[in-house]
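Hey, can you fold this one?
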Amino acid sequence: MDNIDIQLLDLLQKNSRMTISELSKELNLSRPSITERMQRLQDRGIIEEYSARVSLKAIGKEIMLLIQLKSLKISPVSFEGKISNDADILECHRVTGEIDYFIKAAVNNMEDMRMLIDRLMPYGDLSTSIVIMSPIPYRHILPKE
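Sure. Predicted structure:
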């Protein structure tokens, strides 16, 4: 990966809707060259997907939670299968140490939060924290040069 690839990644993370023509102008490369670089980055698994970040607040998800689950009472595979389609769960990370999982969730209100906690309680011991502020809500990632 060269400096141009890194610049391309930076531009795409800032705005994944940039057209090939816009990227071509910004990087002073031909459109076929940009297309080839993007395809190579995808083939190597560096670019996993193109997506839009949605404002949780704008869609009514007013409360963000970080949930720690420990003392898992069923197998990890079973647990992950049971929560995989829960729309309130944004992320789930299996980790080492005393905690088995860190779960990031977003709900509309306190009642929805209670219902989510009730859904998760049968699987282990929970500790729930409400996010009051996210000073770094998202970070673009670039490889070191």
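The chain has a mean pLDDT of 96. Let me know if you want another pass with a different chain boundary.
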